[in-house]
Design brief:
mainly alpha
């Protein structure tokens, strides 16, 4: 059992250092409020969300590449269980980033609907 914990700890440390160069991008700090925003504010919000989308995709590509590079660099020194643990950690980071992106896009799209509904009345 101790050997398993040691192996998992080694894989976690290896995974943590593998992703050191991949910076998780910050989400937009404030999305426009569709109930009060101007067209320019909505367009600026759209630009910010698109920029965030690009940054998240670059981050995901980075962690994917770093994992592949780390596995290749280690060669035969990693046990299959270690590789699986590393892949699991990377998949969790990947999925969390995509989930965060989806959440931001959903919130912005909701504000677009509010904005459009408000302006359809004019």
């Amino acid at each position: 059992m101790k050997a398993l914990f040691a192996m998992l700890g080694t894989a976690a440390l290896a995974a943590a250092t593998a992703y050191a160069d991949c910076q998780y991008p910050p989400a937009p700090t404030k999305l426009p409020d569709g109930a009060t925003a101007t067209l320019d504010e909505m367009l600026a919000g759209q630009k910010e969300v698109k920029s965030y989308d690009k940054a998240i995709n670059e981050y995901v590509g980075c962690i994917d590449k770093e994992l592949d590079d780390q596995i290749a660099k280690a060669g035969d020194t990693l046990k299959p269980e270690q590789i699986q643990d590393m892949k699991k950690v990377e998949a969790q980071k990947h999925n969390a980033a995509i989930d965060q992106l989806q959440s931001v896009a959903d919130r912005f799209n909701e504000q677009v609907k509010v904005y459009k509904a408000r302006n359809a009345k004019n």
